[in-house]
Specification:
single chain, about 90 residues, mainly alpha, Beta-Lactamase, globular
Length: about 90
């Protein structure tokens, strides 16, 4: 299991290598997934899926459908934008 310091270093390394360059949201999602051990979705303000990374052996038909369309539904995006602080397991 990685220590908090190792996780912080991995995220910091990503930030340093992308300084001044276009960010790979896919790579960012993968680094976050690997370090905080969760599914990661990076979503634009209008609901466009910019990057994502699923946990190993994860399958959800609903999420696969959204990823395939590259957009979150409008109502879902509106609900997400209303969240103003960190929350776990949003449903």
């Amino acid at each position: 299991m990685k220590s908090l310091l190792d996780k912080t270093r991995a995220i910091n390394r990503l930030l340093q290598t992308t300084a001044g360059k276009p960010v790979s949201f896919r790579e960012m999602a993968e680094v976050l997934r690997d370090n905080i051990v969760c599914n990661v979705y990076i979503i634009g303000r209008r609901g466009k899926i910019l990057g994502h990374a699923f946990m190993e052996d994860f399958y959800c038909a609903t999420m696969e459908n959204m990823i395939g369309k590259a957009d979150f539904p409008g109502h879902f995006n509106t609900d997400m934008l209303a969240i103003t602080q960190t929350r776990a397991n949003i449903s």
